[in-house]
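Predict structure. Chain length: 500.
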Amino acid sequence: MKKYCFLIIGILVLSFTMNAQEQDTAGSSYEVYLSEQNKLNQSLSTFFNDNFYEMYSLNDKEFINVIDSLRRNYSDLLEKFEIENPEIDKSILFNESKEIHYSFDNFIVLYPYYHERFTGEETTIYKRLERNYSDFNNPELLSIETYVDYLKAFLYVQSNIELHKEDYKGVDNQKLNATWNLINKYFETPTVMDYLKFYYLNHHIDNFGIKNIDNLYKEFISNCKDTSYVNKITSLYTEEANGRKGHLIKTYKTVDKYNLEIHLFLPENDNQQIKRSVIVFFSGGSWSEGKPDWNFNACQNYAKKGWVGVAVEYRLADRHGTLPFEAVMDAKSAIRWLRENANEYNIDPDRIIASGNSAGGHLVLAAVLVDNWNEQSDNLDMSCIPNVLMVNSGVYDLTDENSWIRAGLRRRNLDENLVDEISPNYLAPRKLPPTLIIHGTNDRNVAFSTAEEFVSKMKLDGNDIVFKPLEEAGHFIWWGEYGKRVAEIREEFLKDLGYE
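Prediction complete.
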């Protein structure tokens, strides 16, 4: 699974919106310009798609030379357009020049991040980019998409550097806190700061939740001058806070100063004479983002059926500064905790179903297949193996596309091949509990072939896996047009096993 976060990695289409008067001024000559620019876009897109790894593996001077050569094609086209149209509105030329400038500086600002990922070599070319600091406090540029994308890319890469500081060790929501500190460092204009803080706070709540962000939330509400931003964040925060009410929230493990939560949705009027089946949800998000809240509705629905619905918080790269190894240990700890506390919550310890989407699906499999990675505080006499596994678009091979994991291991001075130990397709087959694998044949995040390989390997070892390929489906099969079909497959699978 690729970990690109929210960065703009594809080729940015260079364009701007003109009002009717500007269109009349530019006329057909502008249409010709856009047509020529579109040809450049197509060529540039093909070039980067074919040479992305090779480009970011170049040394810094070679990389800059290539980027500037590509940039000149656009600059020359714009200069030609300006010469041939001396009456053109100067604001059009200004915006277009900024679009070009920041489109290509976007590639440059990402160079240290990808160069280290692909080569293991740390480097920096920020001296070149200091020329952009003078634009950082110009609110008018916020209307230029590639400028905004550049700011986000700049903050992403700089936050990775910021997080090397010991100050962030043991701090929750590390990426958000680091980015917040950088906004305060590099920006002064309230309009720009309000926009960026709104963007990152909104993104964080959407993808990580509200746990331990009260200080930043209160600061934003107090200082932001844009009432629309304040209203949106307040509404989103309140919605998230309400979602955390009405069910039990327990700490299943404290590790590295983090109190990891397990959310339990119990059936009403529970009959203590009947032990309940439990379904445990692990959210996806590339082991980098995600929140148990995404599974609250599903937990509620199972509780209404008389089950115990459970959503698990586990450590994430962008919150806790971790790698998937810690997430694997957390998944195993959560299953053990449920068995240790089965009597208190009227759980049948022999009817624990583990369900996961994408990276969460990987954790479901890892709880069974991975031997070496266990939390020191765990009671190893308590089994971490669920009784049933259900995996949607799971991850089976972490060794190739996830070079960020290898880079993280190198940064810890560990053997990067340790990633094999948590990659299902690299682990020895063993007897699996009843297992359902659902995967889209057109999944571009996790290749369908890796799921096929896993199923084939496990079946050769005598496992009876129910494998349900979804023709033409992509990665996010648990919602959207395939969501209903996935739900039907899962319901039928559980019914066949005797779970009502």
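Summary: The two ends are 34 Å apart (CA to CA).
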